[in-house]
Specification:
The complex is a heterodimer of chains A (370) and B (415). Chain A is mainly α and 370 residues long. Helices cover 71% and strands 2% of the residues of chain A. A two-stranded antiparallel ribbon of chain A has the order 1-4. The longest helix of chain A has 27 residues, at 236-262. Chain B has two domains: 29-147 and 293-378, Response regulator (Rossmann fold, 3-Layer(aba) Sandwich), CATH 3.40.50.2300; 150-286 and 384-411, Response regulator (Rossmann fold), CATH 3.40.50. In chain B, helix 2 (45-64) packs across helix 12 and helix 3 runs parallel beside helix 4 (107-120). The longest helix of chain B has 27 residues, at 2-28. Chain B is globular. The model of chain B is unreliable at 10-28 (pLDDT under 50). Classes of the chains: A mainly alpha (370), B alpha/beta (415).
């Protein structure tokens, strides 16, 4: 049955209609406005600073999608996802810097797009390796095995060995002009934004479609009760590993995207704290919701920036008490992060996505909501 | 009546806002904005807090002393927690605020932002003294008022080789043995490693396997035991003070028997306090005077420290604050010169500001500043200090430029 609120007397007559993404003209209109805002409005009106904030949101969404899939849809708790972002970033960077690309691929600007795909695949496979223990363990024990991904991948392999490739030292930087997507050299915030918005849109579409398929239903069944899922004939290990692969794949895309934003990487860019942060994003946004991933990312990045600008404004207005608050804003941010998680756990355990759903329902039933 | 009251209130609020905004705009006309990225909570906060205080105090001093030819400096100072993504967003915010220059912090973010600041022509005066930032052909807008890590390390190895090794019982019988202890993953710690090993080989050391020690390390026994197998005569430490103190303590308690040389961010007034006897004999470069030392500007530094940060006892203040002052004062001088030339653009701050300095003295015990258009290393003379009885005293000044003139000019620039 469709989950969309339909106007009176509109009924679906076949499965295609029932499963359609945008089922009414109103929804199509809303989505068109959203697309216009994302692809035209923001690039037209946002300055470099706000574009970079948007890029941070996009990077967070891409990183958190995999965490959402594992925790929110498949019930596999992970605390080492930054490792898979690192694998994606390093694979893409090393391919650009070290791979003997045929000249025509460089000329056509295909080296970076291909490297994104390869990075995603490598990261997906790497994630499956660390997902293998999920066949045997779950809960707290699985948290520890996923944390091992961080220590083995970033602190050991990347730091000790991968970083040494080419004798560059710890920090890899990509020379200007090497991050090219077809004819476009990705060399300013606007181009990074367009790349980000395309990648985020594609990743969300893939995720949503996967969740509507047999695979997605199997993941949700495993999340709800893995023994029941197995009894129903679902190959639990296979689907768990598939979830790890997809989560790693999207993490790899996130990592490969990150290098376009900065054109440089070092192991410091992927601390364990980032894995924790990504879990915070989905807790605040809403566990088990793609919307939640986006809302959580916006909350964690934009709200903090706005709060900071507000303090800056107060400081400029001459409020002396705002000055130390401004300097110590990171304390405020960390405290806000902790408090937000506590507050959401207590007052809104289903996250921002649930609040969004309630608002939508209210207006769908308006003026006869009760 | 209600409507009229509401209208007058709305008009009043609107008028006040317009007045405030207008006043702010007028005030802004005489203000030069400078951004500052600091680490007060992250991996390098053990040395970052006092540096940040130093920056803020120096800007107060600058403004009290006429600012930039009468224009006041407005400082936007952020704690970015040593996180690279945070640094990137903050840098964009500085651009949005129309900051004319940035006082940056760590090697990881400074090197990562380097292509961006070059493209934006934003003078970026960092607390990272990585030699990778000294070649204007690659990083023209990266500057700092200090000798670079690689030169500091080369000088420290040379000083030990000249002063300590001849007194060793095995002198003349075998090569001295040398290992490096630093956090591999940190671009700061690993930045000079190539130069460190190059210098060790140049002086004929036998180089052992590097030891990975975290910036957060509180227990380094396994690394010390691994070093013991090689029995080094000299260990180079590339981390910051807390981590270095832990390593020195463990080396002392496990009887490593080696001497220690330390990068400048690992040796300060806190090292003897934290490491106690284990710090005795440790050597390292300092890029400026220690807090409270007899220097022309030190009285002002101490006075501003007392005035603006009275909650921090004077005995807790360190050389880090002086390093902050040095970078801020160097930028001040560059801004004054660029402003005098009538152009406060990034290019002018570089060309008419920094690159016109020739032997400019800050009065804080650091090497006189000389930035050439093809070389941003300020000096080849590096003072090496030693911890003696809990005090840090000058051991000798190593003049790399005079000793290896060809290598200094042609080989060593930029790494």
């Amino acid at each position: 049955m469709s989950t969309t609120w339909l106007p009176c007397s509109v009924y679906h007559q076949n499965y295609a209609q029932d499963h359609a993404w945008w089922q009414t003209n109103f929804i199509k209109g809303k989505m068109l406005v959203l697309f216009l805002v994302l692809f035209v409005g923001i690039p037209l009106y946002a300055d470099s600073y706000w574009l970079s904030v948007c890029n941070s949101v996009g990077y967070t969404v891409l990183g958190a999608l995999g965490v959402q899939l594992l925790i929110g849809f498949c019930g596999q708790v992970t605390l080492g996802h930054a490792a898979f972002l690192a694998v994606g970033a390093y694979t893409s960077t090393l391919m650009i810097l070290e791979f003997p690309w045929p000249q025509f691929l460089l000329d056509w600007g295909l080296a970076y797009p291909i490297s994104i795909l390869v990075a995603a695949l490598v990261s997906g496979v790497w994630c499956v390796i660390f997902g293998l223990p999920s066949a045997k363990v779950k809960g707290f024990y699985l948290i520890l095995t996923t944390m091992a991904a961080q220590f083995i991948t970033v602190d050991f392999l990347i730091t000790q060995y991968i970083s040494q490739i080419g004798g560059r030292g710890q920090a890899f930087s990509l020379p200007p002009g090497t991050i090219k997507f077809g004819p476009w050299v990705i060399d300013n915030d606007l181009k990074v934004y367009y790349l980000m918005i395309v990648l985020v849109t594609l990743s969300c579409v893939v995720m949503i479609n996967l969740l509507r398929s047999r695979v997605g239903r199997a993941w949700v069944a495993i999340r709800d009760n893995d023994i029941s899922a197995e009894v129903m004939g679902i190959n639990v290990v296979k689907y768990k590993l598939l979830a790890f692969f997809v989560a790693g794949f999207i993490g790899g895309v996130a990592g490969a995207f990150w290098i376009s934003n900065l054109a440089a990487i070092s192991p410091e860019h992927f601390p364990w704290f980032w894995s924790l942060w990504l879990v915070g994003v989905i807790l605040i946004g809403g566990v088990g919701s793609i919307h939640g991933t986006v809302f959580g990312s916006i909350f964690m990045v934009v709200v903090m920036e706005v709060l900071q600008l507000l303090i800056m404004y107060l400081m400029d207005m001459g409020f002396a008490w705002a000055e130390p608050l401004f300097m110590d804003f990171l304390f405020v941010k960390e405290a806000a992060f902790g408090l937000a998680i506590c507050a959401f756990m207590i007052f809104e355990p289903n996250g921002l996505a649930y609040r969004w759903w309630q608002i939508k329902n209210y207006f769908n039933l308006w003026p006869f909501s009760y | 009546m209600f409507k009229r009251n509401m209208l007058s209130k709305v008009f009043g609020i609107f008028f006040s806002l317009a007045l405030i905004t207008g006043a702010a705009a007028i005030a802004e006309a005489e203000v030069i904005k400078v951004g500052s990225l600091n680490d007060m909570t992250g991996a390098t906060s053990d040395v970052g807090k006092d540096y940040a205080l130093g920056i803020a105090e120096a800007i107060h001093y600058i403004n009290d002393n006429g600012g930039v030819n009468g224009k006041q400096i407005k400082l936007y100072q952020f704690d970015y927690g040593y996180r690279v993504p945070e640094a990137l967003t903050k840098y964009k915010l500085f651009q949005r605020l129309k900051c004319v220059a940035v006082l940056g912090w760590g090697t990881g973010d400074t090197e990562a932002l380097s292509p961006t600041v070059t493209k934006d022509q934003m003078p970026y005066v960092s607390a990272s003294y990585s030699a990778h930032l000294t070649n204007p052909a690659k990083t023209p807008y990266n500057l700092f008022a200090a000798t670079d890590y690689s030169s500091n390390a080369r000088a420290a190895i040379t000083a030990w080789f000249d002063e300590k090794w001849p007194n060793h019982k095995d002198y003349g019988k075998r090569k001295p043995r040398f290992v490096c202890s630093y956090m591999f993953a940190s671009p700061y710690s690993s930045a000079p490693i190539k130069a460190v090993k190059d210098q060790a080989q140049l002086l004929g050391f036998e180089v052992g396997e590097d030891q990975d020690v975290s910036l957060f390390a509180i227990d380094t026994k396994s690394q010390i035991l691994a070093m013991k197998k090689f029995a080094p005569d000299l260990v180079w430490h590339g981390n910051t003070t807390m981590s270095v103190a832990s390593t020195l303590r463990d080396a002392y308690s496990l009887g490593l028997g080696a001497d220690h040389i330390i990068n400048n961010w690992g040796i300060d007034e806190n090292l003897p306090r934290l490491a106690g006897e284990a710090a005795n004999g440790a050597m390292g470069a300092a890029v400026c005077a220690f807090y409270g030392e007899d220097q022309p500007l030190m009285k002002e530094v101490v006075a501003y420290g007392k005035k603006y940060n009275p909650g921090v006892p004077m005995e807790k203040r360190t050389v880090r604050a002086i390093q902050g002052w040095s970078n801020a004062l160097a930028l001040w001088e560059a801004l004054k010169r660029a402003d005098k030339a009538g152009d406060l653009s990034g290019e002018s701050i570089l060309k008419n500001g920094f690159e016109t300095m020739e032997g400019f003295e800050l009065g804080l015990g650091g090497a006189p500043l000389s930035y050439k258009a093809n070389d941003h290393r300020i000096s080849g003379k590096i003072p090496i200090y030693e911890v003696v009885g809990g005090k840090i005293v000058l051991l000798k000044v190593v003049d790399l430029k005079s000793r290896w003139p060809d290598k200094w000019e042609k080989e060593w620039l930029g790494w």
